Amino acid sequence: MRLVIDTNTLISGTLWQGPPAHLIQALEARRARLVISEALLAEFAAVVARPHLAARLAQRDVTPATVVRALAREAELIPSPTLPRPAELRDPKDVIVLAAAVAGTADAIVTGDQDLLVMKRFRGIPILSVREALEALRIAVE
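Given the sequence above, the corresponding structure tokens read:
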């Protein structure tokens, strides 16, 4: 299953425990494939380098650069596509997620963002919560 995962979910899964971490583990175990655009990777790099995450990174004995490199190694990196903002998209910043999913021929978009989740689908691509994605991958979460 080819997944585009939004930045907040990737950050959560990389730095904390819980369902997003199970999703990251599924990617590492090759149960799913992360598809990420250059724009999404750049956004991830900017967010993971924010000062308020420094303590968490230090606890995990990683740096922003090592986390970004690890993610890039695991992912299928695609060029950043352009996509006009769909009328139904509430937050224009989320267009990079939709564009990556279309360009990367994703099977699903995974997010915790209500602005995306309310859409349910985009151009035939389901928009799933982390728990829904884990269910689709048949991964049980407590």
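The longest strand covers residues 33-37. Try to locate this feature in the token string yourself.
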